# Entry
Amino acid sequence: MLIDRFLAAALTGSLMLMAGSAGAQTVGPSGETATPSAEVTLSDTDLAAVKEKGYKAALLWHTSSDFTNAVSAGAKDEFARAGIQIVVTTDAGFDAARQRSDIETALAAKPNVMLSLPLDPVTSAEAFRQALTDGTKLVFLSNLPKGYKHGTDYAAIVTDDLFQMGKQAADALAKALDGKGKVGYIFHDASYYVTNQRDQAFKTTIEKDYPGIKIVAEQGISDPARAEELASAMLVQHPDLDGIYVTWAEPADGVLSALRASGNTKTKIVTLDLAEPVALDMVKGGNVTALVADKAYELGRAMAAVGVKALLGQETPAFVVAPALTVTKQNVAQGWKDSLNRDAPQSVLDAAK
# Structure
């Protein structure tokens, strides 16, 4: 699921975390304060105003996955409430040229609003230009075409609350350790906006909020397949680690394998995004103590709501963030539904009983 977020890396330096003495937050491309997605809602008056207009929408995604399926579900449900028909849904397979073709195909159906994650800022700027010429309202997921201006070219960017994802991971690990101990920090060693911001938020929160917890080992990782090897080396040097933060769920599974190989049942793991192997260990009372995810369904709902507001000529927030969610053994069934709008894997549900 994380690969969906990697495409937002093109925004490096545009979306950022703003830190200060009062805390930190995810802010927009020009320093905009984030608007919580819960504040982007459609009133009965809004719904009545669009229901009989015959408006149409297009969903142009970068790939097909559990994540995009959940985003689509949120958008479809919100558009359905407004009587807006989805006329085109596409999957560009992470290919910017294919996305451009998808845009041309979609415009032939004359959609009034288009939701998409632009694959490349430069290529996308030209690819979406015809949509602007046609008067189609644009709402973007996580990324932004180069040079596009809020209110003129697009209605909003909607994305995860990246700071809260990292912070909640820190809070969950601190809770598992009773606020004290030695931890390892395995971060994504590549220039990717999403992972970089989440990782840094974890580290900042530990250092600022939990003086009893010390990060004694740090290890960058670029290839998830090396996670077990790197974690094993970290554990040889620091066999007394009380906890380990891992940048996302796939390498966390490798770290879990390293702990098992050494017979270590003590060191706690916290990681980001939902995946069956780490969730199964968590519900069985293993090393994994918590998973932090975004609310993908809510991302889609908020995107659709912004699109409707744009169609109504209402002012729309430039930068909208959906909340993070901490998933534990106690709330795994509900957490999976809240994040992905589907049931958790049956193996996880069975083990959680």
Q: What stands out?
A: The chain has a mean pLDDT of 92.
